[in-house]
Amino acid sequence: MTSAVTTSAVKVAKLTHQFGERLILDGIDLEIQRGEVYGLLGPNGAGKSTAIRAISGFLRPDSGSISLLGNDMVRYPARSRDTIGIVSEDVGLFEAVSANEFLCFVGHMHGLNGSEARNRTNSLLELLELEASSREPIAGYSLGMKRKVSLAAALIHAPHVLLLDEPFNGIDAPTIRRLCELLQQLASERRITVVFTSHVTDYVRRLCNRTGILHNGRLYDEQELMLEVGAPHGTEPGLELLLERLSGAAPKITTITSWYQQRS
What we know:
Layout: E1 8-19, E2 22-33, E3 37-41, H1 48-56, E4 63-68, E5 71-72, E6 84-87, H2 99-109, H3 114-127, H4 143-155, E7 161-165, H5 173-190, E8 193-197, H6 201-207, E9 210-215, E10 218-220, H7 222-229, H8 238-247, H9 249-263
């Protein structure tokens, strides 16, 4: 029966995890549909990377359930490895080899034959403007170039779900624009699901169908968080001001600028 077919790509229920005495994720519930682009926001240390690692199966949570395309990621994380593409906050690459060699290797690991791996590698290197350095060791790349290689490795096997942790860090604006266009096209035409974390609210607004904000281990939408932080009724502070209020940026700025008043 077609009614039994779920359209959920990611389904998380009562996800909880802590490091030592600190509760990072506190009973998170989240459902993301196929073809949806979902942005996960929050201050540093809010648990965004922890959530991505748990959803991808690289971190076993203390409690709760995670379903990825119908597969139980807590019990059977390896079953979904070929259907997801991951970019972690810490770029982990084989830096002794070139980008061309590394991406062909990743393609082979995902079951692509030699010619297909080379063709996809060439297309990704062109898209990300890495062709000129593609045969040089990755160790000599800038941080932004390494992020591009990591993104290419996440895309080469045409995954159904992309989990991207701060994917735009260190990448130039023109490349970010092309990547945004690519992700939107994959979501709308191929029903690829994209979940990504970012501190850059402009890209979140441009890309996402929905956003969630992590705060004190809980996941909120914008309206819920406005009530949590005490925003005046009827106001719309926006993502930038909400994040600023959570991180306490304004008092820190005032403190530092006051030093210069003392010097005058």
